[in-house]
Amino acid sequence: xxxxxxxxxxxxxxxxxxxxxxxxxxxxxxxxxxxxxxxxxxxxxxxxxxxxxxxxxxxxxxxxxxxxxxxxxxxxxxxxxxxxxxxxxxxxxxxxxxxxxxxxxxxxxxxxxxxxxxxxxxxxxxxxxxxxxxxxxxxxxxxxxxxxxxxxxxxxxxxxxxxxxxxxxxxxxxxxxxxxxxxxxxxxxxxxxxxxxxxxxxxxxxxxxxxxxxxxxxxxxxxxxxxxxxxxxxxxxxxxxxxxxxxxxxxxxxxxxxxxxxxxxxxxxxxxxxxxxxxxxxxxxxxxxxxxxxxxxxxxxxxxxxxxxxxxxxxxxxxxxxxxxxxxxxxxxxxxxxxxxxxxxxxxxxxxxxxxxxxxxxxxxxxxxxxxxxxxxxxxxxxxxxxxxxxxxxxxxxxxxxxxxxxxxxxxxxxxxxxxxxxxxxxxxxxxxxxxxxxxxxxxxxxxxxxxxxxxxxxxxxxxxxxxxxxxxxxxxxxxxxxxxxxxxxxxxxxxxxxxxxxxxxxxxxxxxxxxxxxxxxxxxxxxxxxxxxxxxxxxxxxxxxxxxxxxxxxxxxxxxxxxxxxxxxxxxxxxxxxxxxxxxxxxxxxx
Length: 592
Fold this sequence. Notes:
- This protein is an all-alpha fold.
- The chain folds into 2 domains: 3-303 and 390-580, Up-down Bundle (Sodium/glucose cotransporter), CATH 1.20.1730; 304-389, no CATH class.
- 70% of the residues lie in helices and 1% in strands.
- The chain is built from 24 helices and 2 strands.
- The protein has helices spanning 3-24, 30-35, 42-53, 56-69, 74-98, 103-110, 114-146, 151-201, 206-210, 220-229, 243-262, 264-267, 276-294, 297-312, 329-337, 359-368, 382-389, 394-432, 438-461, 465-469, 472-491, 497-519, 546-564, 570-580; strands at residues 340-342, 375-377.
- The chain has a two-stranded antiparallel ribbon.
- 53% of the residues are buried.
- Mean pLDDT is 83; it is low at 466-470, 523-536 and 584-592.
């Protein structure tokens, strides 16, 4: 059976499974649509939460970042997993006890302010839309390579599948679909990793293979350090010890942690369990399921980098690159997508791939007659291309395609549900038409979901430049606006409505403006153009790390404004006390 047919069968089977689950678990009420009637088991919810979180960024991009960034990219592992520890300890059980459906609803009720609720809606929508663009774009990339259709066609197919199971099932359908998607993505991620680890190190467990010996007899990481430095790249396992690097790594890790804890599509998953204690257990199980992939990711990244170098320099020496005409089939396959490109700069017909920005390597490159690195590799292709690079069976290649699509679609569904809830429950029911019937609200939720899918699809087809460059905006907004508001809402009786609104706006505006200025994304009036990236920054802090500073600003502004204005009403103080301190049975009482 040819590779295309295999891809079609396996991907098609997973799509049929998702749609079948959605039909079986169709939501019939707002409680089922928003929170699956709060009847999801903690283990099931943990698995669904893991799939919700492990997006195309985790499945496709993270190993590529580690492969090219080495030690410095470990921030992604520490930040994203550390965020779940914060979520389990500081947010999930208390938000579940409050008994609401959405994050803006909690903020609006706790801070007794429709304005606070609307600011939270804005933060949620901007962060979620920015995040979902990357998922939809990833769907198009995976389809274009493995099903041999155009990027546009692939994205439209993916959007259609999400529409069927998300609009029909709501949170109930999405929960059980995400369980299936987790099983697909974790299988698709680990099987190739096991094969490749066995090939390179003889270890069946990739994590052990990472610290084991290469087939050449030397430690794998030592060999990787040697081959990358021979090509002018930084040592793979070395840390950049400059003060600015340490500061940025610390702040970036912290931003990812509190951004993870503040992302609304993750938080709403904890509204689906029966009891408060189940919310904490759900977070713990989610961390276990996430760890299965995250412990494997460093090995996947390191081994992929080594395999890629061995492809270009098959004789084991940096002085003898491969002839372009002799390049393997996997290179030819990915050249078609435009995500891997070769440019013969010195006309010798060979592929020179090295760090042409390295001053220390410049003399060596000149001596060899190299006139610049000739291979451009998109980091996002490494996980998807890994089975082809390692010449694994065709069914493994097809399984990876299904896994990548499962990761992108599961997160897209969670994000779209968060957007739908903000529009239908917080905007329409909360502000525009408080007397809307449950049937009318359910219809509005489905219409909002369909509209959100349409917007996400359009932006996936025509992504703004900034959305394709970084997800820092999504994490920055969640970290700088929603996370502090949630923390203060739970643990401080003194923060009032004015302080909360001022804090959220201060954190949001500071973070967004800083990212736009740092990246050069602001528009120059009267010139019809955007300027180049602005050089310089606040104390050398990168835009990806600024969310943590925005969060500190949020806390500070909220504190000073609250202390300069009237005290929080007594009934709100009692509400905070009831949420924070266990009293009797742990089950929350619904007021819907």
